[in-house]
Amino acid sequence: MSTIEDKILDGPRVHYCDADDDDIRTGEDAGLDLDDPDVVATRNDVSSLFVRPDQESSLRNGSASHRMRSQGYSMNTGPKGVIADHRKHSLSKSSSKVDDSDLDEEFKELLNDDSIIKSMAERRIAQLINLPSFGSVFRLATGSELLDAIDKENPNVLIVVHIYARFSRPCAKVDKCLDILANEFKQIKFVTLDASAAGLSDNFKENGVPALLAYRGGNLVKSLVQLEDLLDKDFEAAQLRELLIDNEIIR
Predict the structure, then answer these.
(1) Is the Cα dihedral 62, 65, 67, 69 positive or negative?
(2) In a domain, 141, yes or no
(3) 48 near 56, Cβ under 8 Å?
(4) Exposure pattern of 169-189 as b/e (b: 16+ CB <10 Å)?
(5) Cα 203 from Cα 170, distance rounded (Å)
(6) Residue 232, burial from CB neighbour count under 10 angstroms (0-12, 13-18, 19+)
(7) By CB distance 3.0 to 4.6 Å, which of 123, 140, 158, 228 could disulfide with 193?
């Protein structure tokens, strides 16, 4: 069963705090062997949102690839990757490699198959038609309400969570911007929750907010912390919208 910590800490992150923050631990400090992929994977799973990008990239890539390999998953993405994965799965005991030129040709054939394109378009349209409409921001009071808002929602719905601190002017500005964006993007569910109610650390409440976390299908797909440093001092809804688009949270 998911916990509030799982929902907030597990997923891709953007931005970071300084290296001397309490939420950052180095392998040397903890007496860990960072050459052991199992140790790195475990360490990254429990890391906070506050990780420098240069550290985060190596940690996330190393632990993710180790977990994927250990579970038999491939790291391929995109159309050609999907085709390659399908072939590898069908020929799991074969050591033959898939040639890129073959993938290109096969992908072109797929694109020229009107029935496949039509089927994909129809499925996507059906998903969009069946999505609920919201149009306003939901103010949550407890971590349990956040878990319900994420886990009990339509798995195709994008949920954007604003973690805020009371009496914070930047957080109040983000709230006002979200009221505008919620009316513009009605099929996105915008919710807010006080960092204290979420049980986050004092360090996060002081340095991490305002923070936006995006979920789909119960999974954290992207988080933006310290928004105050990512936006102009007098930011408005248009700049926040652009930030979300740039980070592929909304389209």
Answers:
(1) negative
(2) yes
(3) no
(4) ebbebbbebbeebbeebeebb
(5) 17
(6) exposed
(7) 140
143 located within any domain:
yes
Identify whether residues 143 and 227 lie together within a single domain.
yes
Q: What is the pLDDT of residues 136-149, one digit of tens each?
A: 999 999 999 999 99
pLDDT tens digits, one per residue of 115-161: 777 666 666 665 666 789 999 999 999 999 999 999 999 999 999 99
177, 184 Cβ separation under 8 angstroms: no
3-state SS, residue 234? coil
Residues 138 and 240 in one domain: yes
- Residue 80 maps to a domain: no
The two three-digit tokens of residue 174, written as one number: 């983000």
Q: Select from 204, 206, 210 the least CA-distant residue to 229.
A: 210
> Do residues 215 and 148 touch, judged by C-beta distance below 8 A?
no
Q: Residue 191 carries which side chain, given as an amino acid letter?
A: V
Cα 190 to Cα 232: distance, rounded to the nearest angstrom: 22
Contact 70, 96 (CB under 8 A): no
Q: What is the pTM of this model?
A: 0.56
Distance between CA atoms of residues 66 and 119, nearest Å: 35
Closest residue by Cα to residue 221 from 144, 172, 156, 176: 156
Q: Nearest CA to 178 among 140, 220, 138?
A: 138
172: three-class secondary structure by DSSP: helix
| Residue finishing a domain among 25, 43, 70 | 70
CATH for 197: 3.40.30.10
Sequence-ordered list of residues with C-beta below 8 angstroms from that of 91, at least 6 positions apart, any chain: none
95 domain-assigned: no
Count the domains in the chain.
2
